[in-house]
Structure formats: C-alpha cells, structure tokens
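Hi F.,

I've been meaning to write this up properly since the lab meeting, where we talked about keeping a consistent format for the predictions we share between groups. The idea is simple: the sequence comes first, exactly as it goes in, then the structure tokens exactly as they come out, then a line or two of notes. No screenshots and no reformatting. I'm using this chain as the first example so we have something concrete to point to.
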Amino acid sequence: MRRRWLPAVVGLLTVISCGSTVQEHGPASPSPVASSPVATVPATAPVTTSDGPIPMSGPGWDAHNIYVGVMTENDAAAVSRGLGLADINPGNQEADADAIAASINKAGGLYGRMLVLEFYNESTFSMLANPDSQAAAACSHFTEDRPVVALINALTIIDTPTFKSCFASHHVPLFDGSEQPTDTTALAQLGGDVVSVLSPSYTDVAPTLVDRLKAEGYFGGWNTATGTSGSAPVKVGILTPNDPTGAEAAKLLSSALTGASYPPADVFSFSASGAGSGTEASAVLQFKTRGITHVIGTGLNSYLFMIAAQSQNYHPRYGVSTFNAPGILLQGSVNKAQLGGALGIGTEPTVDVDAARDPGIVSSGERSCLRTLHAAGQNFGSQRFPEAVGLFSCDVFGLLRDSALAGDGLSAAAIIHGVALVGPRFVPAETFTSGLGPGRFALAGSARDLGFSTQCECFRYLSKTDYPILAARSG
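Output, unedited:
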C-alpha cells in the first residue's frame, strides 16, 4: 500500500508555502530585494495601459494590496511518516514565500501596492480520493470567495485538466509548479492563462529526450535479467499517467521514437488507484513477456514500476527525465540494481541530483534568490526538497512581478501579455534557461545530460552543456 501512495506524496512536496488553513497575510518583515535583470521599471512609477490608468481596484487588488493565491499541502511529512517512509520534510515554505514577497514589498511592491499572500490548504488524502472535486472547490474559492490576481500551485495531484481549465475560464493566471506532464497544445488551448513554471512542455521534451538518449548510447542491446549490456534487440516500453496529459505525453514520446527510426513503443498507463492499463505489477509482467528491453517513464509512476520490476527480477534499461524525480525519489528509494545504465536529461538540479552532485550556481537568478532566502534565515544545507521549494518561490514571484510591470497592469490580460514580453529575458533560479516567450508557456528552456553512476550509486549530470528544448517549436 505505501508504495502505491508514495509518488503522490512526492508530487505534493514541491509546494510553495505551508499554512494550517486558508490564511491571509500582511507584508512580512523586509529582506533584501531579489530582482530579475528584466525588472527595470520602478514599481511605484505611474503606469498607464491602452485602457487608461490602472483602476484603484479590480479582481484581486485594491488601493493598497495585491492578493496572490497560494495552494498548500501541510500533511505531506506526516503522511510519509504514517506510511513508514522516511520523513520527507519540505522545510518552512511559508518563510520562503514570505521572504520573496517581502523583498518585492520593500522595493515598493507593484504599482505602490503590497503583495498579500492568501494560502489555501489541501489534504493529501482528500486530493487522492477526488482531485477534481478538490480542484473545483479551490477554483471557486479563488475566483469567487477571495479573488486573486494570480494563483501559485505546486501540488501535482490537484493539477488536473479540471483545475487548469477552471482558472483559465475565469481568466485568473495560474503559475503552475507541479510535475504533471503538460504539452504545448494544451497550454495554448488555455489561452496563456496557465504558465508551467516547473515542468517543461513535453512537446519539446519528447524529441529532445530521444535525441539525447541516442547521443548518450542508450539504445544498445540490453539483458533484462542482469541489467547489463546484452544482445537482445531494442524494444521500448512507455509508462505514463492514466489521464489526458499522460496520454498526450506518451503519444509525443512514441512519435519522437518512430521519428528517430525506432520501432513503435508499447504504452502502459496506470495511476495510484490502478486505473488505466492496470497496476505496476501487471505493467512489469506485460513488458517482461513482450521482451521490452528499454523503459521510459513520463511521470512519477516510474518509481512504482521499478519496485515491482525488482521483485520480478526484471531489469530493463531506463530512460529518465526530471519528470521522474531521479535525484530526490529514484536514487534514495529504488534498489540500485534497477538503476544501472539509466540515462536521460534533467532540467532542475534540485530534483535531478543530490547535493554532492549539484552543478553549483547555474544562473544569476539562482544566486540572487539564495542570497535573499539566506538573509531571511532560510538555509537548506544538503536538503534538496526545501531548496527546490525556495528556488521555485523566487521564480514564481519574480515572474509575476516582472510580467505585471512589463504588461503595464494587474489584470489577467496584462500579466499574461507581460509573460510573453519578459519571458525570453527572464533569468530563472530553479532551472538553467528560460523557454518562455510569445506562444511559449513553459519556463524550462534547456536540459543537461543525466545518468546513473554505479560508482557513487547516484544520478549525476554528464556534462555542463545546456541543450535547448525548444527545437520542436522553433525548428
């Protein structure tokens, strides 16, 4: 049972803040300003839009404050302990969010108004039981009961099509930080109201992943009994979440494989409840029976498959990406015999590798972010979850601020227009480069080669080269 729930718990841990119930905060104590290089417009400058001066009040703001919604999940650590797992502690996320909001407020806020954070707490098991119902309730709260200029979400389970489409239909910008696969078409259909701050578009990831796997020598013969090189012909299987976005991710990955002259892949979909093609155990049996030698997962459910595969003495070669949380989930929770030969790409160091293999500061955005957080007392040491949450906080608040300034307003239209304007120049803290721009709604713009080393029994980056993941859109 505990194996079945763990990916859901992990997917919920990358959260922006933590509170006990729905809360309202005033400005936190001042801390140093964390500014992206694109934020060049003074926050207090008189600004007009094509529709005239910014109104004194509007959806999510008044004459003094700007209200920003933040989804929280407080029981992740307690749930993991209850399941007999190591305590997965995401740190003091409220302090992270307050530190970054305070830095913006100290600089004058936005248009002379202060950021006020509105927290909305979700229960792990409530989301697991009925994510769409919880999504609808959260949407109602932030669009009717307590309107906000934008919502920040990093809870993977609640990040359903219902959740995204509800906020998009109400034109409330959603800055999304879940590990749920998304794609360019889905984001475009939402009219730009949803920005994927954490996960890159799978439209771009799929061809990039296949291209880099080929360059890394992944598609060689493999012995699934020993987990080492062998003579069996390459046959690829795809694991994907049992939902529309998972199905589209599998379709995109299958297309990329056949486009690279590999045979059509077997696709197996499943969820924590066993919906879809079946359970992880049946996925292993199916792949093993059909002679699948290489397995690529599009989401966190790869972990479940690996646990079942180990019990059935099945050791395929895995293709991995940040969507599988290699550094913070697979490395510490999967038998190392499953991971030998694993190769792929990663877009987020705090999720891809452990602290000992961290590539160091990868951008001025990361440097500025950590300086602000450290000044506010947020020091993460070797803890990857808290650091990931802190960096995400910097990215979402920085992008919201810069987009509102560039878009000349606080309305949804102004903010989304601003994302397109500042996106190409935005310097992220959590990932290597920005992929945002006109018609591009996913922040991660490049990836590094990633692989599992049997020497350190860890995932590590194979080079310092950043490979663009925009070819599918711009090529």
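Notes:
DSSP finds 18 helices and 18 strands in the chain.
The longest strand covers residues 65-73.

If this format works for you, I'll send the rest the same way.

G.
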